[in-house]
Structures are given as structure tokens and as C-alpha cells.
Amino acid sequence: MLTIIHLATSRSDRLIWLFEELGLEFGRDYEIRTFERDPRTQRAPAEMKALHPFAKAPMLRDGDRVLIESGAIIEYMMGRYGDAGLVPKTSDPDWPDYLQWFHFAEGSAMLPILLDHFQAAGLAGPPGESELAGMAKAGMEQLFAFIESTLTERTWLAGDRFTAADVMMGWVVEMIDFRGEIGPYPSMQRYVEAIRARPARQRAQKVSSESTASA
Ligand SMILES: N[C@@H](CCC(=O)N[C@@H](CS)C(=O)NCC(=O)O)C(=O)O
Asked: Which of 16, 19, 8 is nearest to 83 (CA)?
């Protein structure tokens, strides 16, 4: 049995979604161990250190191995258990875009969003006034424009079919929506609706909220 180590509203939602896209079934093929964030700091609890010294979500336990990094875990799962057609072949013209967007999610997209989150929480002085606030705003505008222009040209980020890059980036675009910033971007709105219409995404949402409620 595979175990997803989960924090509510976190990147571990990517894994539950991927597992459902791969046809794995909650309770039969995988279980979820949910931890609560510290209500004041939103940090992961100290008990997670006992599972892995880095103590961040998600983690995946497979036998006696515990892996971290959502992107690495997704690649691990598809490499070891089959990719269900979510990875273009290296000869496919969409493969370079697949690689780019898969890694862009954690490598570039999250930074301006996190900078903005921390400055808005007042960690860099009065919100909206620090140099960091300006950097975050400019970074987010650049990010949103790049995602929007790509999604105006194609249905999914790496072409006309859904890939694992959309699991990585879909979580980011849903975060943009959750933060109330998607309004001016019709292609991102269309993309979020297409994600939410996927049966695997809907199953994952249900599994995630049920496992959070029973934590
Ligand atoms: N790049 C890592 C980021 C991991 C990460 O920062 N996870 C957050 C949740 S989304 C976390 O555990 N935060 C609590 C903490 O840092 O204490 C990944 O994609 O897995």
C-alpha cells in the first residue's frame, strides 16, 4: 500500500489527483496520512520530522522508502507504476513543452506567489510597501501573462491533450483562482473549469476533503 503524507490545502493535492488519473484507488492502492498545520504559523507539525528530516508535504511512502518533492514523486510514480499516457514520448513535438511546464511549476511559478504571500502577511514590513512587495507584484504579472498567453494558444499547457505537466501547473492555476486573481484571465478561467470537469480531479477532491475531515 502506498501512503501519501498530506497537509490540507497543499501540494500533496497534486499527488492525490495524479493517483486518481493513474487509475489507483483510495483504500485499495493507496492511503493518506493527514497532518494539521500549526494554526498560527501554517508550518507543518514537528511529528512530520519523524517521517523525513525535511518535514514538508507531500511525502510518499512506498515500502521502506519515503520520498519528498511533488514533481519527483510524480515522476517516480509514473516511472514505476505506468504513466497512463500522461507523458508525451520524447519524439512527440509536445515533449519539450511538457518538460518545460512540468518543471516550471516548482522552479519558477511558485516563487512570486510565495513572495507575495509572505509580504501580504506582513513578514517584510507593512504589506504593499516593501521592495519585496513590488518584486512579487511584477513577478506575478509576468507569470500570469505567460500562462495566459500559452493557454490562449492551446487547450492544455503542453498541447491538445492533458499531461502530468497539467497536474503540476493545474495546482498553481487553481491557487491563482483561490487567491481571487484569475478574473482578468479568460484562458486561465477556461483551464480551471476544464480541470474541475475531470472525473479524476473530482474524485481526488472528494478523497482529499474526506481525509482532511477525518484527520
Ligand atoms: N517544492 C516542494 C515544496 C514543499 C512545500 O513547501 N510544501 C509545503 C506545503 S504546500 C509545506 O510542507 N509547508 C509547511 C512547512 O514548510 O512547514 C514540493 O513541490 O513538494
From this structure: 19
Decide: 157 in ligand 1 pocket, CB within 6 A: no
The CB of 6 under 6 Å from ligand 1? The reply is no
Out of 56, 70, 108, 118, mutate this one to test ligand 1's pocket (max ligand atoms within 8 Å of CB): namely 56
Q: Are 188 and 144 in contact (CB under 8 A)?
A: yes
Would you say residue 11 lies in a domain? yes
Residue 111 domain-assigned (yes or no): yes
Domain C-terminal end among 65, 84, 103: 84
Rounded-to-integer distance, Cα 187 and Cα 139, Å: 19
Predicted confidence (pLDDT) per residue in 130-186, tens digit: 999 999 999 999 999 999 999 999 999 999 999 999 999 999 999 999 999 999 999
**Nearest atom, ligand 1, residue 73 CA:** 20
State which residues form the domain around 119.
Answer: 95-199
Q: How far is the CA of 132 from the centre of ligand 1 (A)?
A: 21
Q: Whose CA is nearest to atom 20 of ligand 1?
A: 69
**Residue 29 to residue 23: CA distance in whole angstroms:** 9
Question: Number of structural domains, the chain?
Answer: 2
Residues 99 and 45 in one domain: no
Residues 123 and 189 in one domain: yes
pTM over 0.85: yes
pLDDT tens, 117-128? 999 999 889 999
Residues 63, 79: Cα–Cα separation, whole Å: 16
